[in-house]
Design a protein that fits this description.
By secondary structure, the protein is α+β, with helices and mostly antiparallel strands. It is built from 13 helices and 20 strands. Helix 1 runs antiparallel to helix 2, helix 1 packs antiparallel against helix 3 and helix 11 crosses helix 13.
Length: about 425
Amino acid sequence: MTTQPMALASQLFDALREASLDPPGVSRASYGAGERAAHAIIRSAAEAIGLECRVDPVGTLFMTLPGADRSLAPVMIGSHLDAVSHGGNFDGAAGVVMGLALVAQLQAEGRMLPRDLTILGIRAEEMCWFPVNYIGSRAAFGLLPPHVPDTARRSDSGKTLAEHMAEEGFDPQFIRDGRASLDPTRIHAFIEPHIEQGPVLVGAGLPCAIVTGIRGILRHPICRASGAWNHAGAVPRGFRQDAVLAVTELATRLETLWDRMEREGQDLVMTIGEFWTPAEMHAPTKVPGQVRFSLDIRSEQDSVLDAVEEVMRSTAAGARARRGVTFDYGEGMRAAPALMAPHLRAALRDGAAAAGVPFLEMTSGAGHDCASFVLKGVPSAMLFIRNQNGSHNPDEAMELADFEAALGVLAAAIGTIAA
């Protein structure tokens, strides 16, 4: 396999696509055949360019280019190699391929970094396979609850994580025991290159972006507003306990907050992804007595998530008092924002200037393995690559020219990052 950086990247993307083709896209199930094939392809390429390779008990692939002082904590670059069912070829994989392309470029230029550079191929990031976020990176840090191997089941097979790990030759007991293969005190910095999963870079006409942070999440997947079913013609307004109007009021108040936050320059996105009245009860001639809905709120700022929670509380209290409608937001989860390290963002900005690559600074609305590293106190950064047509679909269309531009940024910055 060639060691010319962009030729290597092109060959790897083609090989990954061919090995996991599942028309109309690719499928690389977590702890499944597609992910296994991807790891084998990447490891073979890493060994061909002289990297030291090893795999930890949960399947994380470590590929290391020795630096001048091997006693120093390494810089790590990487991402995940699983992909959603019938998805695109670049989500996750672009970050691992960029790490190998960077190694090839350093070798071609005869550059040795002051410390080791380790490329990571991480397992099981996509939640569509197992209903647990960041399985691979959290398992490597010892962050997964010990019950997860035996309670999390894969969506397509129904088998547990433990069963799939064992089938792939890995050790679920490592997770049950709370052990770790990644020591945050032995990581100098972590960089995750990744395709952008939205349209911002396409709209801006720019090839790459330096990420400011990964949005925190406030998620309530099973919400319910309960009032009373009644006759649509016979019940005056003052006697109605209309659940639809109550949830509509919540949506209106949330959008009013969103509008104000945007005007003030605050970061916020909100989604009501599900909203329905139960089919077994609803009818055109009934006042709706119940609405089921979901809430997904994201922000780079904890204070904004606090403000959303206050709107939820006050709307529920008001609906109970004025409409006789009660809200039950169900069991929710809240994940803190993961902010990128200022000195690494500065190094990437300087790298972009040195490489002559125009860029944007932006928030990541989607979650990434990088959040696990931030949670453990590892200085971290992300570099987004422009990508047409979004992600998690077969129409992902990252251009190799944009990948090359982002690689140029990283190559120009890596000396400062590793110093």
